[in-house]
Amino acid sequence: MTAVRAIPLLHGLGLWSDLTAREGPAQMACDEALLQDATHPVLRIFRWTRPWVSAGYFVPWAEAAAVRPDLPVCRRWTGGGVVVHEGDLTFSLVVPRGEPWACLRPAESYQQLHEALSGALRSLGVAAGLSDEAEPAGRECFARPVRHDILSAGKKIAGGAQRRTKAGLLHQGSIQVASLGAEAAQVIGEALAGSIFPWVPPPTLESAISGLVASKYGREDFIQGSGVKAGPNPDRGG
Which of 30, 74, 103, 141 is catalytic? Predict the structure, then answer.
């Protein structure tokens, strides 16, 4: 277990408690749209229309679909494994390229973010600390921890994955703790930044989401992997 990071990762952070329940492809499109236009860091806490499975960028379709055959599958733009979103707290953190934290190496930024998150969870009454495991990640994200995932009583309760572009850094995370209440968003935001403020999405965001769903995230070739293009790899995560 590692100590809590005392210095906030970010100076300021927009907090968006996104109350619009979305289908999986729209959730993924929303995060990419946020990254494309981000002018300052934004933390989005969001809800799903129903339980979903999200698969990391390079996870084979057959393996993703087999984890929970009763649930629909969407494909993330980030790396990592397969996550079942069923009662978890799901969030995304978008940080523009000019922010020092967004310029850290993937392993370092992952560690620092999870140090802050584990501190937030402890303040919410959840025993939490970081994993020291050095084993490679499996296909199912929460089946076993990798280094710097968040543990409680030896069990992985939070993981995430990242992607870097010319615009900045996108971190997508899941906290699998059913007891978290409405105050969790504020507490997490305060753990990440020196100051937080309510963030209101621009009126153009919904049209950007719809466009990305139609051109990418809602397409079967992207979801099933045949439309996943080679190129700069998303950062692997837990």
Answer: 141
What tokens does 38 get? 């981000």
The residues near 123 (Cβ < 8 Å, ≥ 6 apart) are: 187, 191
Instruction: Tell me whether residue 141 is one of the annotated catalytic residues.
Output: yes
The predicted pLDDT at position 178 comes to: 85
Q: Which residues have C-beta within 8 Å of that of residue 235, sequence separation ≥ 6?
A: 78, 79, 106, 110, 161, 162, 163, 164
Q: In this structure, are residues 185 and 197 in contact, taking their beta carbons and an 8 Å threshold?
A: no
- Angle between helical axes of 205-212 and 24-37 (0-180°, round to 10): 120
- Which pLDDT score is estimated for 140? 74
What count of other Cβ atoms lies within 10 Å of the Cβ of residue 20? Answer: 13
pLDDT, tens digit, for every residue of 41-58? Answer: 999 999 999 999 999 999
Q: What structural domains and CATH numbers belong to the chain?
A: 10-223 (3.30.930.10)
- Please write the tens of the pLDDT for every residue from 140-165: 778 778 889 999 998 999 999 999 99
Q: What is the pTM of this model?
A: 0.91
